[in-house]
Amino acid sequence: MSSQKFNLFSFSGKMKVMHLSWMAFFITFVVWFNAAPLISVIADSVGLTNSQIKTLLILNVALTIPARVIIGMVTDRFGPRRVYSLLLGLCSIPCFMFALGTSFEQLALARFFIGFIGAGFVIGIRMVSEWFPAKELGVAEGIYGGWGNFGSAAAAFTLPAVALAFGGQDGWRYAIGLTGLMSLIFAFVYYFNVTDTPKGSTYFTPKKAGAMEVSSKGDFFLLVVMKLPMYATLGLLAWKLSPAGVAMLSDNMVNGIYLLLFAILAADLLQTFNVNKQVFTGQVPKFERYQFKQVAVLNVLYFSTFGSELAIVSMLPLYFAETFELGMAQAGMVASSYAFMNLMSRPGGGWLSDRFGRKSTLLILTAGLALGYFGVAQIDSSWGLPFAIAMVMLCSFFVQSGEGAVFAAVPLIKRRLTGQIAGMTGAYGNVGAVFFLTVYSMVSTQTFFYVIAASAVFGFCSLFFMAEPKGHIAEVSDDGEVTLISVS
Asked: Is 475 helix (H, G, I), strand (E, B) or coil?
């Protein structure tokens, strides 16, 4: 760990690594959400129907759930420097494909692959955890997450202006192509300017590849239970593309996807068993153990926090436009107040977590989250617009501070598995988004907010099963040397 002071305006040592990591994450979010602010222009240019537009938005998040899990494993195995650089470089390709697309099918395929870049977040979580001590980790991860997350808002503000500057029917193509170029260039910037660990530190890799290691029989079964919602969500996305949904895929194709998901689940469970079969025959050495319930609780909390954020960002402009009879441009500006909170709230949640403990901070923020969404559910046209904005911003403070506090705890569970734990928890954010958006398409907006509040209450109850990270976690290097890493 670097002993350098935490100085936000420094660009050397661990601070340089943090700044370059949030910039990499920022670029992944610009690329991931580059089509959203231009979608009406793209639709006119290529001649897309309403259901095709909806399909592109679904495809944008489809691949991110498995991608976060896979990227988490790859990061633990090969190190964040190589994996982040490769992801930024490779994901520029579907970005250029999208910019050059002339038919719905071409755009859909490119959008599907662009979803992979949404996994970039996971890589930086491991990188930052290698460079910062436990007492600074919450705020460092919060800055990484919050400032990087702002890439989606930056895309919404800047890309329409870039498209207008290039002008003409193809202005949007230049805007989207430019984000791909930015991603490609930064791949090299990142690769040549960071290292996986401070000088003299060991980068611990998992003992076995292909699945998350657990420490007991009970943990094994809990891991299996936590895998199921991720597969169910991918099945739900397939159903949304079926004739019963937006009718992009035929019944036969959707049934094929269900079969494929079932086969992958079976292979995944078999691999998980092979990696962990020793828990059924013997005991994991005491200093090597960790409690998987810690991961399960954080998954549930990220489902409510980041899951609801992704869902709200998608529906808020329309909700404000309809409730207060605003134009779409005004509604978009008002709704962006929600994303703006990320710059301060997420680091704020991490800072509170560093100061006042991981569990107590999460309890307070999750209670605030439930009350916040209950409050937002009461908004109607009788409210003054400023009061409605204030209520939404207060709610978003608890949402994003909660995200910061979740990822202040993630790297303190088991160092060599940090990428995989961050991948699974991050994927649960996307599972939450798909779940909440599906609920939104079926019920009234008020009920939608109540459902999110209820999920936060469930998260609050689950926190009583979580233990505050204390003392040290032990990691063993390949030559058998034991290293103790402080987590409190």
From this structure: strand
